[in-house]
Design goal:
The chain is of the alpha+beta class. It folds into 2 domains: 44 residues, no CATH class; 79 residues, no CATH class. Helix content is 22%, strand content 40%. It has a 5-stranded mixed beta sheet. A 3-stranded antiparallel beta sheet has the order 1-5-4, with helices on one face. A hairpin with a 2-residue loop joins strand 12 and strand 13. The longest helix has 13 residues. It is globular.
Length: 133
């Protein structure tokens, strides 16, 4: 294999040594990115990213608020916002027998860009019969 290209693709990977296939990689936004010349590694990471998510699951009516459902962020703000895998919060309400969900990573990143990260993740989506809405 040839030397990695000087430009980098925006494909973050979890690599504590800053390498892919033994080759050094550039760092971007606090995460390792694969050089654009490393197509096989890019394809593998992209395939895995479509499968990998972290899910914070809660259950009970205590997560219900006047505006819907929420999960407190507490000490997870940095991990959920800046991890290399998206984090989703899901609450099951036994009274309605429904699942409510939200993309915590997206809410925290958007809030951070505006200078005010939320203290809770507001769950606006529902899951009924295996269908997201």
């Amino acid at each position: 294999m040839g030397a990695p290209a000087s430009s980098s693709a925006n494909v973050p990977v979890s690599d504590p040594h800053g390498t892919v296939g033994g080759q050094p990689c550039e760092q971007g936004r606090g995460m390792t990115v694969i050089p654009s010349g490393r197509r096989m590694e890019q394809a593998a990471v992209n395939a895995l990213r479509t499968l990998l998510h972290k899910v914070q699951v809660k259950d009970g009516v205590s997560w219900r608020r006047s505006y819907g459902y929420a999960v407190p962020v507490r000490r997870h703000s940095e991990t959920w916002a800046n991890g290399n895998v998206p984090v989703f919060c899901v609450v099951f309400d036994p009274e309605t027998e429904r699942l409510y969900w939200a993309n915590a990573t997206k809410q925290l990143r958007v809030g951070g860009q505006k200078g005010r990260r939320p203290r809770t993740i507001r769950l606006s989506g529902t899951i009924e019969g295996g269908t997201l809405s």
